[in-house]
Amino acid sequence: MDTWKVGDVELKSRLILGSGKFRDFGVMREAIRASGAEVVTVAIRRVEAKAPGHVGLLEALEGVRLLPNTAGAKTAEEALRIARLGRALTGERWVKLEVIPDPTYLLPDPVETLKAAEALLAEGFLVLPYIGPDLVLARRLAQLGTATVMPLAAPIGSGWGVRTRALLELFARERATLPPVVVDAGLGLPSHAAEVLELGLDAVLVNTAIAEAKDPVAMAEAFRLGVEAGRRAYLAGPMPPREGASPSSPVEGVPLGKTP
């Protein structure tokens, strides 16, 4: 069976779901089932603050592995506080590390992310850091011992698709030097998820594209199929592109010359 690992945990599904933006918990649970996802992220600050729509969220996510995230953190210090709170609330040492000081484009801070990752690892967390498509930073995080690296495909919630493809191709080329690569943010369609998996990267994380679809459950299933198709295509070994056309039928015995 084709599986992958986060830390020492073996996973079958290469699709991780976010738990935000669903219109209610019932739709969220149905979408999780349709997606086949085994891991779901949860924003700890929203749970802590008992924000509308988040009361009872942890109970609604029973049966899946929780991935607490540090959404809302603008500095390494804030991320540490939220991560510790997440571990206290959930009993889970996994943490999706997000340090985002930029309110306009929601781009992660590489310096504060690296600083927070080092501190969290020292406290025994299993760290899954959200980063820009920066291979140098990814290598630094790998050297520290993060469980994954999670480069963005496009700005969070944009649905633009794989706008950073050229840089993600470098991640695919350097897979042997990195922990599992999970592409996070900006995916809007199942074809975008398939594109990522076709590159040979390990998994994707999707929230807005599913939660804001007209039919989130159907879209969750579509993303599951897109991820599966992309992974199978990668394993099948795609044909190399050519500079020109190549006939799919034999040309032997076909007279050459002008077309009448």
Structure description:
- By secondary structure, the chain is α/β, with parallel strands linked by helices.
- The chain has a single domain, classed as Aldolase class I (TIM Barrel, Alpha-Beta Barrel).
- The strands form 3 sheets. A 5-stranded parallel beta sheet has the order 5-4-3-10-9. A 3-stranded parallel beta sheet has the order 6-7-8.
- Helix 1 runs parallel beside helix 10, helix 4 packs across helix 5 and helix 5 packs parallel to helix 6.
- The longest helix is centred in the C-terminal third of the chain and has 21 residues.
- The protein starts with a strand and ends in a 24-residue tail after the last helix.
- Pfam families: ThiG.
Summarize it.
The protein has about 260 residues and is of the alpha/beta class. It contains ten helices and ten strands. About 40% of the residues lie in helices and about 15% in strands.
